[in-house]
Amino acid sequence: TEEMGIISGALEMKTKTVKDIMTPLDDIFMLPVEASFDFDILTEIECRGYTRIPIYEGVRANVVAIINVKQLTLVDLKVAAPVKSLVDFYKTDLFFVFENEKLDFMFRSFREGSRGHMAFVQKLNDEGPGDPRYETIGLVTMEDVLEELLQAE
Ligand code: ATP
Ligand code: ATP
Hints:
It comes from Orchesella cincta (Springtail). With 153 residues, the chain is of the alpha/beta class. The protein is 33% helix and 23% strand.
């Protein structure tokens, strides 16, 4: 029944992790910080339909900002504003979580809302030479968590 689906969804919130439900890095629509909002990129943003666009520097695993499409309202089509200028103007803190973070924590954090409704899933990469470093491996939004909670069997 639908009720059983909701109850098992609720129980799984304590054991499932963000890694289990995230949108993996390769599937994220994101832009490099050195891009500009020219006609082609604005058209692609429109086609993809996402509200939040992560911005990376260097490699995709290095997310440095989010642009909300609402922030593109004032972009002048004739000038092709650099992504960097919007990132600097609308400085937002990013919400990072570890890959093993549980969904019940995610739900409470998103509901509370002070860090927005998108979080970046991090893992510690200690392979190879050099210091261990954090890398982004995916993202989760409130929508992903709700889908998990409300799953009907
Ligand atoms: P909203 O519903 O607030 O307009 P949205 O539709 O852009 O936002 P969500 O509803 O939060 O995004 O998420 C829908 C799905 O899309 C989720 O699975 C989420 O992980 C994924 N998603 C969100 N943003 C991106 C993005 N930039 N690239 C790839 N997947 C994304
Ligand atoms: P939505 O509410 O449409 O799902 P969102 O929560 O990601 O999107 P906004 O709607 O633009 O982002 O903002 C909601 C509130 O959360 C605002 O008060 C905004 O200032 C705040 N906020 C959004 N993103 C962040 C962030 N990354 N860090 C801190 N505060 C944020």
